[in-house]
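Bug report (template v2)

What were you trying to do?
Predict the complex of my protein with adenosine-5'-triphosphate.

What happened?
Run completed; filing so the output is reviewed.

Input:
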Amino acid sequence: MSAIELRQVSKAYGDLAVIDALDLSVEGGSFVSIIGPSGCGKTTLLRVLAGLEPATSGQLSVDNRPPEEARRRKRVAMVPQQPGLLPWRTVRANARLLLDVNRAANPVDALTPELLLAEVGLGDFGAMYPHELSGGMAQRVALVRALALHSPLLVMDEPFAALDEITRSEMRHLLNRLVEGKAVTVLFVTHSITEAVALSDRVLVTSARPAQVVADITIDLPRPRSVDVEDDPRFFELCADVRHALHRGNGTTATGGGA
Amino acid sequence: MKHRVLAPIVGILCFLGAWELLVQLNDVRPFVLRAPSRVVDNLFSYPGTYAEAAWVTLQHAYFGAALGLAGALLLAAPMAASRFVEHAVHPVLTLVQVTPFVAYIASVVLWLGPGTRPAVFIVGLVCLPAFAFAAVDGMRSADPAARELLASVDASRWEVLWRLRLPSALPSLFTSARYNVGLALIAAYLVEGGNYANEGLGAIGKKAALFPSTRDAADALWAAIFAMAILGTVTLLVLSVAQRALMRWHVSQRPQLR
Ligand SMILES: Nc1ncnc2c1ncn2[C@@H]1O[C@H](COP(=O)(O)OP(=O)(O)OP(=O)(O)O)[C@@H](O)[C@H]1O
Ligand SMILES: [Mg+2]
């Protein structure tokens, strides 16, 4: 079964059609990026999948359940664009925030936030407060906070958009290291072609609002991916494919052409 | 940092010095204005009396403020969650805020009986609106990203209130607490003047006002005024310490650039 299944899903705010009859199926354990023009409905799609917002019409399942139920069972972990750390909680306490609420739904195999913090290089910073962290460190805490849930689905909304280029590149290799070989399915929204290609098994390119998938590009780079993958000629080819698809998507009749 | 301690002391001493001079040079009538030296002298002549009265007033003000805060939080949680509730409760709180409580002290004393209960009740009522408005504002200011995050794991209303909304309201609650210090003390003082218990600084002040021409009355009145000022100052200090302890994470508690 697919981890995410959308059939003819639409979402409108009043008269504004944000998502229009979208079909999408994401295989369990894969890393899928969504890249598309600003305002096309990517965040809306993630919020619908996370059960934060009902779809206007269509059928969708997340982890083989309706999104609302997946949300109640803590099956979806979010990493927002802003880290959203609580300033009165230490790094350690922020990392366990999602485990501290709705405890009844915690999985038996929840991960220990302390160990994850150590894994992302924040082992010595557990007692610090968010205002003492750099942007990259804060976003790593947000990542740990989501991973600690050990949920089958991870949705990330431009999590590295606010970071500088060097930190972003560190973060994508960290993320690859954290999710590769794990059963987790990742849906990753980004504006960065490099990021999408470096991280993904599949890149979905969407058109302007209402969002349509105009290209579905398979990223056949080998895993595990090291930092060197970004020097691979295939990497550049794939980046070019995504870029072309993005340009075509801005035209009128573009349809899904693969890699 | 030395001037943080020194400067206020210098300022207050200058103020008291000027006051002393004014009274000494102009022969002001005692009830109108007493020289600080006489007031201090009187305070130290009957330390037990004033300490006891101040202790009573302090309890009225603190228990009343605690009652007001508790009521405000109970109101603020549904107000922050629902615009309808907010729009329904807001005018009532405004009404409470703008109605001079002095006007209904006698009625409340009649209702609750003489003594502590009307004092605590009126102080609570007086503190309620500012606390409630501040709590609503603070709870609403909670980071939307954090709210969404908690919603994404189906945190209950209580969890959101306790883990997110209440801590978010701390800064504005402290600001309103500073504003309420004066109100709470005034309310306690005035109710003590009218609750037939003959306790507290307000009772001393009230008795003194019955005989404004005597020197003893003037002494008592001004001693009560000084004691009130000390209560207010100590309370603000306590608030600052509490704020520093509870809000180390907040911008306002960090070293500032000049
Ligand atoms: N709660 C809402 N009410 C009304 N309109 C909304 C709401 N949320 C989003 N929209 C509209 O839906 C459209 C898509 O918004 P969305 O945030 O999903 O875009 P996005 O693809 O994530 O954009 P970006 O890349 O800039 O983050 C926008 O036109 C926005 O104005
Ligand atoms: Mg967005």
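What did the reviewer find?
Strands of chain A lie at 2-13, 16-27, 31-35, 57-62, 76-79, 153-157, 185-190, 202-206, 213-218. Chain A touches chain B at residues 47, 50-52, 71-72, 74, 76-78, 80-88, 97-98, 100-102, 105, 129-131, 149 (CB under 8 Å).
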